[in-house]
Specification:
3-stranded antiparallel beta sheet; about 35% strand; binds zinc ion; about 5% helix
């Protein structure tokens, strides 16, 4: 069982199931919302995600016509991105997941809009926007 929590601890969750996808998104929305050079996301089955506490402290932000992000009202920690085009999956912010659960090799997306002050120093695959098979459900960069 994978577990996680926000910074203030009000919201705790668990994920029953494996991390199926692991990406680092450099789009401007992820950069702003995570206050960071990029956001890292664990793709998991939505059916396995469950709040253990604090669900009423979770609020949502519709970040594009087809994507919604959730975060803690009290501390601002990001929980996940949900894409209308992938109703059975959630992209959970890796930073709110506890420990070091098993996951596939990562890759970088939206590298074409990465922060000019950040350089990528690894050999993982890079995509200017999203990999071809994710094109239609990628969050819109703004
Ligand atoms: Zn919180
Ligand atoms: Zn992004």
């Amino acid at each position: 069982m994978i577990t996680g929590k926000c910074e203030c601890g009000r919201v705790q969750f668990e994920i029953d199931g494996p991390i199926e996808d692991f990406s680092h998104c450099h789009c401007s929305q992820c950069r702003r919302m995570h206050g960071a050079a990029f956001g890292s996301f664990a793709g998991v089955a939505k059916a396995g995600f469950r709040y253990l506490s604090g669900e009423t402290d979770v609020t949502a932000y519709q970040s594009s016509a087809t994507s919604t992000r959730t975060f803690c009202k009290a501390c601002g920690s990001n929980f996940f991105v949900a894409l209308d085009s992938e109703p059975d999956r959630l992209y959970v912010a890796m930073g709110v997941i506890d420990g070091d659960p098993p996951r596939p090799d990562g890759y970088h997306i939206y590298v074409g809009s990465k922060a000019p002050w950040h350089d990528i120093h690894d050999d993982l695959p890079q995509y200017d926007t999203a990999p071809a098979d994710e094109e239609s459900d990628a969050p819109q960069d703004t």
